[in-house]
Design a protein that fits this description.
Largest sheet: 3 strands, parallel
CATH architecture: 3-Layer(aba) Sandwich
CATH topology: Rossmann fold
Strand content: 5-15%
Distance between the termini: 41 Å
Number of strands: 9
Order of helices and strands: HEEHEEEHEEHEHHEHH
Number of domains: 1
Structural class: alpha/beta
Strand order of the largest sheet: 1-6-9
Number of helices: 8
CATH superfamily: NAD(P)-binding Rossmann-like Domain
Radius of gyration: 18 Å
CATH class: Alpha Beta
Length: 213
């Protein structure tokens, strides 16, 4: 299990170690298949849950690189299906990029999370020097939301490169859409908790009607 976008993010130590690990695996285990997932999310992740916690608490939230970085988030259940598919079909000696069914920017991710937890926050683009300072602050947390090295990763889109097969190409398309899946557990960050579900359903209907129009 590796990570998507590591060929491009050459200045990131995280990306460098992933690439080095891949080289060692392929050198010593030539039949290995390496999976490179985009952001993996679920109810117990350190991605959506951390963001919803901070969006719930902070009146202003920083947009790094103007929020333009693209992602193709893949739900954990879809990634498990990819792993099962690779094993059951005996897929060897490949690098497979594992992506979700949609491409969304960092700003869109934050906007979707804000909608789901029913909060209004100012999303402010941070100049790079201020972004680095905020990363230094966030990495002091016990479970850092953002580190300086992750800030370097955010410079690069986290989508399929076109250089390798994806899970769609091997007959295992991801079916889970980001907003719909996070909707299932976002109530933990909403006023009223689980008892806000009915309100959430009404808001969801409003969102669907708005999108249709």
């Amino acid at each position: 299990m590796s990570a998507l976008g590591i060929n491009e993010a050459i200045e990131s130590n995280y990306a460098k170690t992933k690439l080095e690990g891949e080289k060692e695996i392929l050198k010593n285990f030539s039949l290995s298949t390496i999976l490179r997932p985009s952001i993996v999310y679920s109810v117990d992740d350190n991605f959506t849950t951390n963001f919803m916690t901070l969006l719930n608490r902070l009146p202003i939230f920083p947009l790094y690189y103007s929020g333009r970085t693209k992602f193709m988030p893949i739900h954990s259940s879809d990634l498990v299906n990819v792993i099962f598919n690779v094993i059951s079909k005996n897929i060897y000696s490949q690098i497979i990029e594992c992506v979700g069914p949609e491409t969304i920017t960092f700003k869109q991710i934050l906007e979707k999370l804000l909608f789901l937890i029913d909060k209004n926050r100012f999303l402010v683009s941070f100049p790079l020097p201020f972004a680095k300072l905020s990363a230094k602050f966030f990495q002091l947390f016990p479970k850092p939301l953002l580190t300086e090295d992750q800030l370097k990763l955010l410079k690069y889109d986290n989508i399929n490169s076109g250089n390798y097969k994806t899970n769609f190409d091997i007959g295992c398309p991801a079916k889970s859409f980001f907003e719909k899946e996070v909707e299932k557990y976002c109530y933990m960050w909403r006023e009223g908790g689980q008892f806000s579900t009915k309100i959430s359903e009404k808001r969801w209907e409003t969102r669907v009607k708005k999108n249709k129009n």
